[in-house]
Amino acid sequence: xxxxxxxxxxxxxxxxxxxxxxxxxxxxxxxxxxxxxxxxxxxxxxxxxxxxxxxxxxxxxxxxxxxxxxxxxxxxxxxxxxxxxxxxxxxxxxxxxxxxxxxxxxxxxxxxxxxxxxxxxxxxxxxxxxxxxxxxxxxxxxxxxxxxxxxxxxxxxxxxxx
Length: 162
What we know:
The protein is an alpha/beta fold. The chain has helices at 4-13, 29-36, 70-77, 87-94, 120-123, 143-152; strands at 19-22, 42-51, 56-63, 83-84, 114-119, 127-130, 137-142, 157-160.
C-alpha cells in the first residue's frame, strides 16, 4: 500500500504539488471544519459504501453539508441496498482507516474494485480539500489536479445529484 510520503512523490511525478496543513486527527466533517475553516477548496465527505449482494464497493464524494439518502442513492446507482463499509473493507480496498477516506486512496485500489461516485457540485468545484491517506493532514487539490490524477489511474467518475 502507498503511504502519504510515496503518494506525494507519485503526485509530484504528475506535476501535482498540493498544499495544505497538518493538524490533530479528525474523524468527522465537523472536526475538520473547526480546524480547516480558512483553508481554500470545497470541504467534502467521503463515504465508502457497499452493496453486498453484488460485491460492489463505491466511494461517494459529496459536499460536507449534503444529506446523503442511501435509499435514493441506491436507486440512482441501480443498487438494491447500500450500507457503510466496515473499517476492514476500508483497509482492504483503500489502505486507509476511518476518518482518512479520500479519493487519493484510489492509488491503493490496484484491482480497481472501487467505483468513484461524485456529487455533481463536487466535480464542478475549483478545488477540494482531502486527506493524503491520513486524517492528520489536509491538502487542497485543484480540480484540474483531480482530473489528472484520475486519468493517471484510468478511473472514471459517475456524477449524481444528491
